[in-house]
C-alpha cells in the first residue's frame, strides 16, 4: 500500500498540540477553543495507531492469534516503544525531586503524558483482537462492540470511584478511538461510512460544547480528570479531524511547511517522550509562565529530535538484536 505522507503531517501537528496542552493552563485552553483542536491530539494519535496497525496486519496477511502473539512479532513492536522511553524514565528517576523508583515511571505514573507508553503497549496486545473481530464478524460490529465497551469502562470507573492513576493507565478509555481508526481503514470507501462519520461528528461537536463550556453533569469518569470529555461520545469528531487531514493536508501550498510537519511527525514519539521529562522538571523546579509556550515547542522538538538521532545511531542497532531474536 502506498505510504501517505499526510499521516506524518498529522502526527507533526498533533505533537505540537501536545506540547501546547502542557504549556497552557485549563482556563487558557478553553478561551482559545482548545477542546476542538489542541485537546484532540491524543485521540488523533490513537486513531492513527488503529489505522496504521490495520494496514500493517492486512499487508502481512496475518490471520491467527498465534501469528499476532508470536514472541518475535511482539518484541519487534515493543522494540519501537521501549528503548527510547527507558532512557527518559531513567532520567526522571535520577534527577527528579521526589524519590520515585524507576518502576514508578515505567508503568506511567509520571505526568505530562506518562500514561501514553502504557496505553501503546496495551494496544499491541488488544489491536489484534479487534482485527480478528473484524475478520470474524464485520468492521461495523467491531466498532459497535468497542463503543459499548468503552462506555461501560467510563461508567464503571465513575460508579466505583476508580483511582485516577489507574483510570489513566488503562487502554479501555481510548478503545473506541483505536477501533475508529481500524474501522476507517476497512470501511471508509462504503457509502454508510461517510453518513455515520458526519452524523457522529455533529453530535460530538455538540457534546464537546456542552461538556467544556456548559459543564453538564454526566456519569463519565473523564469529567473529573484532566481528560474531560475525551470519551467515546467525542471521538467521532477526532475521526473527522483524521479524515480531513488524510484527505487535504497534501494540498499545503508551501512545501517547506508540509516537510517540516513530516519531519516532526516521523520523530513525534521521541518528542512526546522528551516533552514529558521537560514539563515534569519545569513544574518541579520552577514557576514557568505559559507566555513562553513557543520556547516550550522549540526546546521539546529540538531535544526530541536529538534523542531520536541518538537512539537511531547508538541504541537502535545494539538493542534491536535483543528484541528480535
As an assembly, this protein is single chain
Shape label: globular
Give the helix level as a range of percent: over 70%
N-to-C CA distance? 28 Å
Report the C-alpha radius of gyration, rounded: 19 Å
| Count of helical stretches | 15
The total of beta strands comes to 0
Weakly predicted, low-confidence segments: none
Q: What value does the average pLDDT take? A: 88
* Count of individual domains: 1
Annotate the secondary structure layout.
Layout: H1 5-23, H2 26-31, H3 41-59, H4 65-68, H5 71-95, H6 102-106, H7 115-136, H8 139-159, H9 164-169, H10 175-187, H11 191-214, H12 235-248, H13 255-266, H14 268-285, H15 293-323
Any overview of this molecule?
There is one protein chain. The protein has 325 residues and is mostly helical. It has one domain (5-323). It is 74% helix and 0% strand. It has helices at 5-23, 26-31, 41-59, 65-68, 71-95, 102-106, 115-136, 139-159, 164-169, 175-187, 191-214, 235-248, 255-266, 268-285, 293-323. The longest helix has 31 residues, at 293-323. It starts with a helix and ends with a helix.
Q: What descriptive keywords fit this protein?
A:
globular; mainly alpha; 325 residues; single chain
Concise overview:
The protein is mainly alpha-helical.
